[in-house]
Amino acid sequence: MPSPRRYLLLCLSALLVIGLVAVWLRSTTPQIPExxxxxxxxxxxYARNGQPGAARMLYQxxxxxxxxxxxxxxxxxxxxxxxxxxxxxxxxxxxxxxxADVRRAAIGSIVGLVPANQRTLLLGPxxxxxxxxxxxxxxxxxxxxxxxxxxxxxxxxxLAIDTWKQVLQxxxxxxxxxxxxxxxYLHNAQLDKARQALEQALKLKPDxxxxxxxxxxxxxxLGQGDAxxxxxxxxxxxxxxxxxxxxxxxxxxxxxxxTEYAVLGLAKAVELEPENxxxxxxxxxxxxxxxxVEAAQKQLQEIVQRYPADRKARVLLINYWKETGQLQHVQVxxxxxxxxxxxxxxxQQAW
Length: 351
Prior knowledge:
Elements: H1 4-28, H2 34-37, H3 40-49, H4 54-62, H5 69-76, H6 85-94, H7 100-113, H8 120-123, H9 132-142, H10 147-150, H11 154-170, H12 175-187, H13 191-204, H14 209-221, H15 225-238, H16 243-255, H17 259-272, H18 277-289, H19 293-306, H20 311-323, H21 327-340, H22 345-350
Helix pairs in contact: 3-4, 5-7, 6-7, 7-9, 9-11, 11-12, 12-13, 12-14, 13-14, 14-15, 15-16, 16-17, 17-18, 18-19, 19-20, 20-21
């Protein structure tokens, strides 16, 4: 049995080791300033409302190693409005998060930050993620890309799609699961199977409007344009006040080269659902295609006024003002964009 003196020395040595470990941990763990720790809610509010300094605050919060997964997910919902090399770096880092929810949210950020045909190198590895929900989120992000765009990940994409198909087929066949199954069939150009899945989806839930609109698309691809037109017309007659269907009509007419008539459907959708910025954006671009530049500008101004953080509408409005030579408006919008995010790529192109 050790003497009291020896016992005391052992205890002191143990305490010294513990102290040294604590000091080492403090020196290697990044210290987060209290102001940043307290700034999460403010950063989220600034990002959502498009307030000056939003990008910087958003990046600071996403750079925190101590942030909870739930909070990281909320921040990723705003990140696509604040693109920059730093934003892409933060999103890419979170593709490797321990949290599956954060990895899925980071996939969503990549979708918003990177054009579809350039996502493969970033998101291709996620097709082999351990969590099925993350793999399927990656599939959704890459659906519609050509084999050339998928490149080395073409095989991994097909394997992930086949796995997801099996999961959907083995589970309860709901209208929503059948719609998702149809999307996978459509990606693989299995048009008859896609049509059958959509028919089943609509039998289970006749008001599944996304399935209905996809059925129109599939009929078109099968060369049954007249059947597609009649299906859309029938549903519009039954639900003339559906903004979703009016928007679908406008987009269908646009795809068939009937831009002048497409404007009517898109304008009706905006009238029925004025808060829907996506409908308003499509109306603006279609008006512009018809050389109705002033009307297009007004639609984009409405989006920016209602949703100051909407970067896509703001940048397009800058381009439309440039076209008409109204450089004063351009300068005002660029200055606002710089306040939001001084590293926005649009600023580098403009100056």
